[in-house]
Specification:
The protein is built from eight helices and 14 strands. The chain has a seven-stranded parallel β-sheet, sandwiched between helices. Helix 1 links the parallel strand 1 and strand 2. The longest helix has 22 residues. The termini are far apart.
Amino acid sequence: MKVLVTGAAGKLGSAVCSSLRERGHEVRATDRRYRPGLEVELKLADLCSDLAAYELLAGMDAVAHIGNHPNVFSGPPPQRILSENTAMNANVFRAAADLGVRRIAFASSVQVMLRMPNGGKLEPPYPVPYLPLDGAAPRNPGINCYALSKELAERLLEEHAREDSALSATSLRFPMLLSEQFAPIFTGRGRPVDPKWLNFGELLGYLMFSDAAALIVAVLEAGLPGYHQQYPALSLEVKNRSVPSLIDEFYPHVELRRPVSQISSLIDISGLQKSIAWDPKHHFSVEMVT
């Protein structure tokens, strides 16, 4: 399979390039900035140009579209993040449709479904639609321009799938992505962690870059027809607290999709794992200060 990887100079994009090559796929990598040391040739391009999108997608079978401004704090003002991300996404999806590229994996964000104020940290009561949370949750970006750009992209990709029954399109609502270097900090380096430093607003969600990259490859290889959206996140295990006790303390107002005694995690990826052959390898836990 010939795959275009956008945003290939970033941590996730470069990991996807490596995973694709390991699986024997042919990779075309692109980004708007240069990064030395990549395993594949990097073509510099600005996806805000529709012409660049057509040139890059010509001859491809699939696209892993990661190339966006990564968050609302990435440099440009929020309104430019919204406009430029939207331009990039529209250009890639339209060019893919016109050129017959019918496998698309899109790097969306958990922020699409959690109403984060301009991308900042959520405060109680947390706007979680239900527990355990999965990728079927409705879009609720608020005025967060980064999240709005992802919402528009998801809607556009969904409409493309309605127009073309052969299209396989998946939005992956990634949580906080971790590198191997950051993982010890995230888990408190083995010491008890104050609850205020734990991200309960995002359901303690996380995923390692390597696991996220493996999922993108699995999605493209599976090529399931139609539009799909997933929340591929693991919930940090709190060793000295049960999940029902966490729900009682931090999410007393949230709708429960099953009896609390039957909820073993704040996040449910069982539906994703039934449809895609993917098993995240990195699981972390912490002990919480009580």
